[in-house]
């Protein structure tokens, strides 16, 4: 299976174009956050979502925590997907599915330990995918993404094995470590921000190197799976 690539912290139509040309499957658009890089205005997010061609997905990263507020944020920005970066009450997740049935819904899980797996049952019935990140939502100033830190990929691998929902992996990814991430975790997709930036700007060379590393690793993993019969017949 081809590993999808989501380039986050897109700040302008120009960066969106760079990411799309490099082969990104999805773009992450960061709205107001308590901390972290890349937030842009809702008006800029709406500008970018309007120009992105199919089949590239646009992810609104929202820090809102109620179904009503998340729904309003979606309607103000018109993404194809909403990425909920806080551990919201699963009852709100259920309500959001009723409010916005045509929007893809991705729940972020901040992996601070094995207890992350305990969150699967509450969210899985109401979402389309999970995204595993390295934030600290209970810190004095909440970290809800964009930390540039990797978390324990052994926990992430166990999470992938424990759910039938697609799982994106985020946190400290770069061309240098993405092969290990894919082999260990086997995620549906990868999400990155700082690993493809230089001085805060999206770096086409770093992004091209990352995409090439993912493509090469996917080919190697597929070949190994075929050889050992993992995906035979």
Summarize the structure.
The protein is α/β, with parallel strands linked by helices and 233 residues long.
- Strand count, sense and closure of the main sheet? 8 strands, parallel, barrel
Count of separate structural domains = 1
CATH superfamily: Aldolase class I
Strand content: 15-25%
Structural class: alpha/beta
The top-level CATH class is Alpha Beta
Report helical residue fraction: 25-40%
CATH architecture: Alpha-Beta Barrel
Side by side, the strands of the main sheet go 1-2-3-4-5-6-7-8
The secondary-structure element order is EHEHEHEHEHEHEHEEEH
Structure description:
- The chain is an alpha/beta fold.
- The protein has a single domain, classed as Alpha-Beta Barrel (TIM Barrel), CATH 3.20.20.
- 38% of the residues lie in helices and 18% in strands.
- It has 8 helices and 10 strands.
- It has helices at 13-22, 42-51, 67-77, 90-99, 120-123, 153-162, 178-185, 204-228, and strands at 4-7, 26-30, 57-62, 81-84, 104-110, 129-133, 167-170, 189-192, 197-198, 201-202.
- Strands 1-2-3-4-5-6-7-8 form an 8-stranded parallel beta barrel. Strands 9-10 form a two-stranded antiparallel ribbon.
- Strand 3 (57-62), helix 3 and strand 4 form a beta-alpha-beta unit.
- Helix 3 crosses helix 4 and helix 7 (178-185) packs parallel to helix 8.
- The mean pLDDT is 91.
